[in-house]
Amino acid sequence: MSNRKQVAQLAGVSEATVSRVMNGIGPIKESTRQKVLDAAKQLDYYPNDVARRFAKKQSGNIGVVLPFVPKVNLFSTFYFSEILSGIGEMLHESEYDLLLLFRDADGPKDYSRWFKTGKVDGLIILGSSDSQEERNALLQLADHHVPFCLVNQRYDEEKLSYVDGEHVSGSREMTAYLIQQGCRRIAFLNGPLAYSNSRDRLLGYRQALEEHGIEWNDQYLFYGNYSRKSGAQQAELILKLLPKLDAVYAANDRMAIGVMQTLKQAGIRPGHDLLVAGYDNSDASSVSDPPLTTVHVPFHLMGREAAKYLLRQFGCKEQPEIIQLKLDTKLIIRASTTKN
Amino acid sequence: MSNRKQVAQLAGVSEATVSRVMNGIGPIKESTRQKVLDAAKQLDYYPNDVARRFAKKQSGNIGVVLPFVPKVNLFSTFYFSEILSGIGEMLHESEYDLLLLFRDADGPKDYSRWFKTGKVDGLIILGSSDSQEERNALLQLADHHVPFCLVNQRYDEEKLSYVDGEHVSGSREMTAYLIQQGCRRIAFLNGPLAYSNSRDRLLGYRQALEEHGIEWNDQYLFYGNYSRKSGAQQAELILKLLPKLDAVYAANDRMAIGVMQTLKQAGIRPGHDLLVAGYDNSDASSVSDPPLTTVHVPFHLMGREAAKYLLRQFGCKEQPEIIQLKLDTKLIIRASTTKN
Fold it and tell me: Where is the HTH lacI-type domain (chains A, B) (predicted)?
């Protein structure tokens, strides 16, 4: 491998000039710049990226924070995969690389250390949920005026940037659709309320019931943890309400698929004897038996938008702007609600 | 934020000593080291990670190379997600971070530039396929004696490290199982032969036929590109062989699910009128209609093993060892082949 000295000799300039050209620092005469670049090309010389970033006080990385849960295959979940894919697509068009960072479930939530140690120039935070500790960590990070963005989670009262889905209207539309299908007794299987997602879906469900003059019934509200297993388990309880039930609507597809498994084992046909709906429009929802009526969430686009926001901040001298973006969802109707 | 100078003053040492302690470079008296660490802690001082790595000539990153295909949501595929998840889990236990890198489909395949620019200390390469250009790029990389590892792809004649699955025996076991189920006319829908995977599966299929005295029939061999769509399309051709066919075995689950869709549209019941099998044991295979008989591939573990191999190289002064690891697969029997 060639070095800076050889490039300087071939170009007939000083080593400092080679550095300045390679790092894009300071004014350089165009003819000099071209001489250096030609010499570097001829010698197959690559300036050290780490050194170059260090000179510019940049890491060149956008960090994506994922929750780390041992023995759970995180990337397998449709949700994280899609968001990551959107971020990756946006960064591929930029000079930035994507650094995956894992947040321990139990460890101290110190997001700022990744900035302090110069590992990242910006952060995208996935899988955040509302606890006092998490909220404090995010507000502390905001105090440092570094660019970061939440995806699919909001802290409504706080001035924190996020890219989210329109989950209230998504859930309201789903519930209204089930009512239009003739259902009045609709069990709702929600996820944990620490996620703004779950609160949004609950609100949408409530709004649709009210708009259609259907009385609220606590008996119809169930909670799982967004896993297929929790859906299958809660379905055991939901079964006890039969035959007084017209539909089960779960806050994500995985739980809905778990519900359908339990129903089928009990000899109840989803889509015939009881309507079942999910949320997310995951890969699995289109191939499940029966295919699942669901709400499409533009996770891929949400990832893209979060990355685009960060890239926009890097050029600015000002402190980061705040964006609060909610992207549209879409009702997807399949056989699990059509009694065909 | 505090700086090195303040730490040096509080600890009563020179700034150079602070650097040496923080970077773990050279011999330092234990009492001095402790004084510096105490002062750093008291002042909430974080040494710049980039500077520290640069001093050690390390990036602290393991790069994971993924194929970049615009408008395809890469992470969504079970295959990449599982491998990435395994790598992430292994690195989480280490001091290394995971840098995602995208290889352009058309661009020059210069893997060495990520080492030359100091972006990574090691590479894990996913989605590699056999072309002269790719082979040259990998051999060139090997010439630099930098640690890297292929996952789920081999170049048999070359001395390149890989972690792969035992796909010949996996495919042989699947084919033998179908024969035991009474099938003699088994269509095989393979993926492109540029993947060692596809060649392994074809070989396993052939071996099982031979072992059971079933004559090879070119008519039964089809090719897709591992997408669900290609499975659905090839199934149109496969349908023309009916009723002279007992089973369709596809080289991955996505194609098998595509095949089942086309069959159902034509009024043919998978698992009753025609047995269907896949390969990968993806999430979708367990929820498809009917659930799919398949071969479990330990993708998560393959990712872990590749990362473990790289971490082992980093401590060594020698040139990287070569590992060639094949992990066991497992037959998974479900309703798509059981005529119940």
Answer: 5-56
